[in-house]
Amino acid sequence: MKFYYIFFYKLFRLFKSTANEGWEDWKALVALCLITVLLLVQGYVYFLVFFPELSFDIPYPQPTLFLISFALCSMHYYLTLHKEKWKAYIDVYNSFSKMQKITSSLLMFFFLCLIVCGLFFSFYKLSQVNWSVYRK
Q1: Cβ contacts of residue 8 below 8 Å, gap of 6+?
Q2: How far apart are CA 36 and CA 3, in angstroms?
Q3: Contact present, 37 and 74 (Cβ < 8 Å)
Q4: Residue 43 belongs to what domain range?
Q5: Neighbours of 48 (CB within 10 A)
Q6: For a 10 Å CB count at each end of the chain, is N or C smaller?
């Protein structure tokens, strides 16, 4: 859970450094929700790639993904902005040494790159599926 709050704090600091207008915590929440949705889409695409015969049996996949995304974004709101629980970790992050801050920034950047590359790779694998075999 500590990593989650530090990840949120790093996003908060990123948005605060670009424009100090007071909406940084909400922007960080939206970015965190976007990352979650990207992970959901990536998981769904991998499901289609590895189980193509089951892909047409899922009733209404878009509303299902929307409801799951909404539930996860609500969870993110509850864990971060509701009663400002994430602010308890500001002192923890500020007590990090310079090397720990650099390491946490690099880990966050690597994690985000891994998500984006995984999403591109999943769409690439999806393009290689022979769908004519599975269509009825």
Answers
A1: 28, 29, 32, 80, 86
A2: 15
A3: no
A4: 2-133
A5: 20
A6: C
Q: How many helices (H) and strands (E) does the chain have?
A: 5, 0
Burial of 127 (0-12, 13-18, 19+ CB in 10 A): exposed
* 79's tokens: 């864990």
pTM of the model: 0.82
> Residue 42 and residue 29: Cα distance in Å, rounded?
20
List, as one string, the DSSP characters of 2-65: HHHHHHHHHHHHHHHHH--SS-HHHHHHHHHHHHHHHHHHHHHHHHHHH-GGGGGGSSSHHHHH
| Tally of domains within the chain | 1
> Rounded distance, CA 6 to CA 105, Å?
10
Indicate the length of the chain as a whole number: 136
Q: Which residue has the tokens 């946490």?
A: 104
Q: pLDDT per residue over 68-85, tens digit each?
A: 889 999 999 998 898 888
Token readout for 12 is: 């908060």
Residues 85-111 pLDDT 10s: 888 888 888 899 999 999 999 999 999
